[in-house]
Amino acid sequence: MTANESTNESSGATRKNDAGQASRTADTRQAVRESESSHAGRESDTSRVTRSCPRSEPILVGEDLTLAYPGSDEPVIGGESLAVELGVVTALVGPNGSGKSTLLKGLADQLAPRDGTVLLEGRDVHELGTKELARRLGLLSQESTSPESITVEELVYHGRYPHRGFFDHVTESDHRAVHRAIELAGCGHLRERELGSLSGGQKQLAWIAMVLAQDTDVLLLDEPTTFLDLHHQLQVMEIVETLRDESDITVVVVLHDIEQAARHADRIVALDDGEIHGYGTPTEIVTEELLATVFEIEAAVDVVDQGPRITPLCPISSSDS
Asked: Which parts of this chain are annotated as the region Disordered (predicted)?
């Protein structure tokens, strides 16, 4: 279920610069620790997932996927396969129009493949009902919409719909999940604000909180740092890392900034023109050769503790290639 679908099921920033920022950060960490109890059914792994983490079993697999939009003869993704490893952050990167968001939609069962299959924990996603899929996999898309008159808190409660019947009352578990999600997304100060009064970046934080409230083992995020200033971009990527490290959640994230992907992801998938050109760790993928081939830029790459650092030098024109 997408954020948009969750809202439709129910008929229904300027960031404050105050002294509460430090306490909100502490609340964020505590919120994640509390959220671990809701994932107690999974096997415990006390080791911290790092960039050097060994290859783990796949949890989400796309096999020989051909993806195209209705009315189009040309596929966006043609016969590609991808195995998303359990408990790691995988970033999809590539130039505009490379198929990043389309691949994410295919993995989320938002775009039915013309050929190929998508397996979630070994089961074809088409065999899963809408609610069951939404309890296992959360998607933050770029097309999310909702009434401008609802508050941030009301929006986040929509994320709990997969866990109850249409006429069921909100439970204490729902209240706890919503509180954790709002604190984790760092938008507690926006809780009572209507969506129509928020900036684009503030709305993005609200949508992130909503998908976190779904409380799934797999999260697919389509450009979650869009519209956000540098502070909130770092905040969102820290949330992603914390979910991985402390709750063993698997995250697939579309990012435009390949250096941001190199800093925060365990695995990177580089796409160009609907094809996967590389899959591996940041140091394996972010090379001067790949930047020239996929992104058509000449750049210097230096490996530092935080991951590969890119210094763009000049664009490579088609006549140069």
From this structure: 1-57
Q: Which residues contact 197 (CB under 8 A, 6 or more apart)?
A: none
pTM of the entire predicted model: 0.81
Q: In terms of C-beta density within 10 A (0-12 exposed, 13-18 middle, 19 or more buried), how is residue 309 classed?
A: middle
Please give the DSSP secondary-structure letter assigned to residue 97.
T
Q: Torsion over CA of 188, 191, 192 and 194, rounded to 10 degrees? A: 130
Tokens of 175: 């209240």
What single DSSP character describes residue 42? S
Residues 61-90, mean pLDDT to the nearest whole number: 96
Q: Cβ distance 249 to 87 under 8 Å?
A: yes
Which helix (H) or strand (E) segment holds residue 32: the answer is helix 21-35
Cβ atoms within 10 Å of 205's Cβ, excluding its own = 26
CATH superfamily name and code, 5-315: P-loop containing nucleotide triphosphate hydrolases (3.40.50.300)
pLDDT in tens, 304-317: 988 899 999 999 98
